[in-house]
Amino acid sequence: MHTITLMNQKGGAGKSTAARTLLSAGDATGLRCAFIDADQTGNLADWAMRSAEAGLWAPAFEAYQTHDAQEAEEIAGELAAEGAIDLLLIDTAGDASRDHDAYATLADLILCPMLLSQSDLETARGTANYLFRMRSRTVSPHLLPEFRVVLNRLPSRPSAGDARLVRTVHSSPLVGVSHSEPEEHLKLLSASLQEREAYKMMDREGLLGRILTRHNDQSEAFAKNPKHILNAVAEAEELLSACLELMKGPRP
């Protein structure tokens, strides 16, 4: 079982969107998935309920909601022991809770969604610094998971300011013991998420692939397979593939 923890020390950066997208990709590619909604907002759990009510959920997917890090650890342990899940997602609260230590150690990969703004860059950097400092709080720092920032809601035509911000992330050592002591580059995931109407549809209705299937079942031949949904499904699968590539093989 692979585990991805969605983490950012602020709300609104797109953790739940990334989780919904990864679950959609998992459904489209036949993975057995589960999620733990550990965010007080309950956005992911509420979405799963809406999706199920609309008939656009994967019945085999398992869903859990808890604000207790110890309970989340127990759930993850039970799922791993059962061996019935390929991918577990943990959606955490948008804060700097010490519970994040527990959620981080459960993960094979930590994804930090980031919008293209200076303030979101600073928050992503703060989240990365928090995880960097975990190395001094754990007995086996080499066992800590990979960390990647995933750019979210990218415009189809990035502005000069957007491009400059991305270059800043790539070129400047932004992570270390503190903001004033940078030692490492902030690592970006090779895949990203664009601003898409299909993701808003996903939020309203359910899993992307099932939205597409229902659309095709109800549409005339000439209107089947709309490009905007196909592109979103393809992007979701690219995101999942990039994550799985990082988690390939056993952890050290």
What does this structure look like?
With 252 residues, the chain is α/β, with parallel strands linked by helices. It has one domain: 3-Layer(aba) Sandwich (Rossmann fold), CATH 3.40.50.300. It contains 9 helices and 8 strands. It has helices spanning 15-28, 43-53, 69-82, 99-105, 118-133, 160-171, 197-205, 208-218, 227-246, and strands at 2-6, 33-37, 62-65, 87-91, 109-114, 146-151, 173-176, 182-185. Strand 2, helix 2 (43-53) and strand 3 (62-65) form a beta-alpha-beta unit. The longest helix is centred in the C-terminal third of the chain and has 20 residues, at 227-246. It starts with a strand and ends in a 6-residue tail after the last helix. The mean pLDDT is 89.
Order of helices and strands: EHEHEHEHEHEHEEHHH
Total beta-strand segments: 8
Shape: globular
Please identify, by name, the CATH architecture. 3-Layer(aba) Sandwich
Low-confidence stretches: none
- How helical, in percent, are the residues? 40-55%
Mean pLDDT: 89
C-alpha Rg (nearest Å): 18 Å
From the N-terminal CA to the C-terminal CA, the straight-line distance is 15 Å
**Fourth CATH level, the homologous superfamily:** P-loop containing nucleotide triphosphate hydrolases
Strand order of the largest sheet: 3-2-4-1-5-6
> What is the CATH domain class?
Alpha Beta
Find the structural class using helix and strand composition.
alpha/beta
Determine the strand fraction and express it as a percent band: 15-25%
Quaternary state, please?
Answer: single chain
Strand count, sense and barrel status of the largest sheet are: 6 strands, parallel
Structural domain count: 1
Query: Counting H and I runs of at least 4 residues, what is the number of helices?
Result: 9
**CATH fold description:** Rossmann fold
